[in-house]
Amino acid sequence: MWLLAIERERRQRVDEAIATRTRDLLRAALARHISETPVWAFGSLVAPGRFHEWSDVDVALEWLPSGMTLEYLQSLLSADVGREADVCLINRTRLKPTIERSGERWIAYRFRSSRMAESRTAERCGEPWAFSGIVSKNRATAGGPPQQPLSRH
User: Fold this and answer.
1) N or C: which end of the chain has fewer CB within 10 A?
2) How far is CA 32 from CA 25, 51, 55, 108, 109, in A?
3) What kind and span of H or E run contains 130?
């Protein structure tokens, strides 16, 4: 019986590492493709202990940037993250209350300054990016003043 418990703990550690890596890849992809667009990450990616190696990523946009379609963004994110991505508009889904209650609101920014390009962030992910306005679960207060960008470390 204890072997099952050990294997379960090992699997949880692996799944947590996969979730962290997927979140990093998703954030970088969002910064690259739809910088400064508020998005909500929801589903198993933001639910502790629910993400696993076969999970997809769920993203709801507050608006669709000009020149972009949901299908095109979905294909870009799927390619960059290496797993299926489901993309919707938050105001056009029946899941809006659930997304706002249990999701995380992200805003991705791309940095173009040489100072940021020299940082450890740029060395690790290839492209400098940061997030601002990360609102954790159950905090849908997007109308407040903008926050300082949070750099990835």
Assistant:
1) N
2) 10, 24, 22, 8, 8
3) strand 129-135
**Which residue is associated with the tokens 């993203």?**
59
pTM for the full predicted model? 0.74
The dihedrals phi and psi of 138, each to the nearest 5 degrees, come to 65, 30
Q: Which residue's entry shows tokens 């690790």?
A: 124
- Distance (Å, whole) CA 21 – CA 37: 21
- 15 burial type by CB count under 10 A (0-12 exposed, 13-18 middle, 19+ buried): middle
pLDDT at 112: 58
Report how far residue 139's alpha carbon sits from residue 145's, in angstroms, rounded to the nearest whole number.
14
The three-state secondary structure class of 30 is: helix
Residue range 95-120, pLDDT digits in tens? 999 999 999 999 887 765 444 433 33
